[in-house]
């Protein structure tokens, strides 16, 4: 259990991409990490694009970001909602400043764009937001997983295995 002492935030909002939330959560839990689902409201059931539910353990206002080792932002349409919450942007900026792992897949890049942390970074995402990423100052590449320091980015569900492995390896090395 190489991640047994690690605490990770997985952000959640309606219309998350089901696999892009649950695959990383379950894989990191298998490695021993404690993964908390965090949403605008605590104990609320959020529904994914394909109907899979996810219940938040805590509200944004309930947590101390400094007590977490990493953050995951799922894709789907949830990132367009998540980036509108000042707390989410503060969480991402705090993780960036502390150089703690930030994972984003598919449309999750929108959250990092709104947090204004992509200038000069190399990232990937769904090709649909390639221009958004470039306009935020990032260098966009078409790869299954891209690691730039503590930022881990991926394109879509078929890329989940190498994305989550890279993220877990980084956490295990800290």
UniProtKB/TrEMBL annotation:
Give the Gene3D superfamilies listed for this entry. 3.40.50.880
Q: Which superkingdom is the protein from?
A: Bacteria
**Pfam families according to UniProt:** DJ-1_PfpI
- Ranges where the DJ-1/PfpI domain occurs: 6-167
Which CDD domains does UniProt cross-reference here? GATase1_PfpI_like
Entries under InterPro entries matching the protein = C56_PfpI-like (IPR006286), Class_I_gatase-like (IPR029062), DJ-1/PfpI (IPR002818)
For this UniProt record, the keywords arranged alphabetically read as follows:
Glutamine amidotransferase
Concerning NCBIfam families, the annotation shows: PfpI
Entry's family note: Belongs to the peptidase C56 family.
Specify the protein name: Type 1 glutamine amidotransferase domain-containing protein
Supply the source organism for this entry.
Virgibacillus kekensis
């Amino acid at each position: 259990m190489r991640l047994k002492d690690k605490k990770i935030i997985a952000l959640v909002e309606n219309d998350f991409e089901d696999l892009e939330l649950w695959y990383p959560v379950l894989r990191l839990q298998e490695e021993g990490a404690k993964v908390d689902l965090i949403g605008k409201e605590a104990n609320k059931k959020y529904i994914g694009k394909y109907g899979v539910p996810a219940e938040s353990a805590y509200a944004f206002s309930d947590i101390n970001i400094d007590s977490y080792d990493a953050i995951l932002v799922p894709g789907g349409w949830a990132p367009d909602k998540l980036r509108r919450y000042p707390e989410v942007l503060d969480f991402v900026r705090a993780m960036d400043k502390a150089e703690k792992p930030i994972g984003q897949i598919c449309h999750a890049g929108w959250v990092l764009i709104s947090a204004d942390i992509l200038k000069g970074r190399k990232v990937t995402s769904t090709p649909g937001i390639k221009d958004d990423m470039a306009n935020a100052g990032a260098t966009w590449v078409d790869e299954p997983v891209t690691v730039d320091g503590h930022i881990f980015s991926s394109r879509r569900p078929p890329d989940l295995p190498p994305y989550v492995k890279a993220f877990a390896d980084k956490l295990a090395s800290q």
